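Help!! Second protein's tokens look totally different from the first
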Amino acid sequence: MLRARADLLGSGAYTPISDALIEAVRSVSDAPQTRAAGEPGSALRVADLGCGTGHYSAELARALPELGFLLADRSPDAVRASLRALPAATGVVLDIWRPLPLRTGCVDVILNVFAPRNLDEFARVLRPGGTLLTVVPTERHLQKLRREGLMLDIPGGKSSRLIEQFGALGFTTDSTTAIEYRLEADTATRLLLADMGPSAHHAETLAQDAADGSASAETAVPVTVSVELLRFTLATRG
């Protein structure tokens, strides 16, 4: 799964998602505010919770080198891969579903991309006035692959439910950005997309076609990438 993510993300297939995250974090970085890490002007602290390969944080660091990063994932292999991508970061192996080993209010920005969410703990570790950025797929995301049985279905209304759940914890919704585009995907790319997550009921058939040199293996087909970037701010405590 990690290898598939690294190869797919390295191909640039999800660059529009990275670009949207960069712009969102840049707007936070440019805003006059007190950082959790110390005095105004100190490095903005970004916690990538469920960091996977660290791709999105590495892209952020290239665009905004003044940021400080904490890379956290349940998988030790993922954390090691993330630190190879971003050696200056701090890496932590943790279970997002359990209490996070972070101080209350120590994070300026939480980055949560295609990853589990521990809403209560996110609200605790984020400083009041801090920003949470989460990327969630819509029901149209990779729909062609799902219809072919290569991936699990995505229920609709995911963003609406998250907005309601975070709102109950004192988060306000700043923006919802739709990111949708067509990706021309050959068999190798479709296999990477299927292998990135828990799915692949029939991916072995696709892999066999590629191994056999099937004529269809090199045929690129349009696949829709469709996600929403939700930006939340944690209310300041009175």
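Here's the second one for comparison:
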Amino acid sequence: MTGLAEGQAPDGADAAHGENCFGCGPANRAGVAMLTKLVDGRIVGDCTFDERHQGAPGLAHGGVVAAVLDEASGSVPTRGGIPAVTAKLTVNYVKPAPLHRPMTVSAHVDRREGARKLHIYARLELDGQLIAESDALFIVVSPDHFRTHGAKDGELPFLGV
């Protein structure tokens, strides 16, 4: 996680950052409930798509695949205690993502540009083969950004909110 050493949490499992988050929230019945952990400076998680995530028959919708890559990418600054939001996400779809097959997602900072720009690379794999990858630009924001948009005190303690 290049450039995120300050405030970086130790290796290990990550809790959901929001109960109703589509990417990681256990209370979101339509979500993927993906939990991530920090392993050797990278975010790593597992997910399995089902009928709630279907696009074409038997395959995950491309938007859901993008959401998983975005979730993994966003977990990188979150894990470092850095409040940041997605500014741009470019996805390269390599192979279809089948339903009911466990997949692995990983993400890391590719580079940091100045104080506010984090360029994050993520990939989704099935049995070691690339399904999709993304390049994301995250912008570091004030913790007040989340309060302005509805976060209540104590809801995001890892970001000071």
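Reply: Different proteins will give different token patterns, so don't panic. Strands lie at 12-13, 36-39, 42-47, 84-93, 103-113, 117-126, 129-140.
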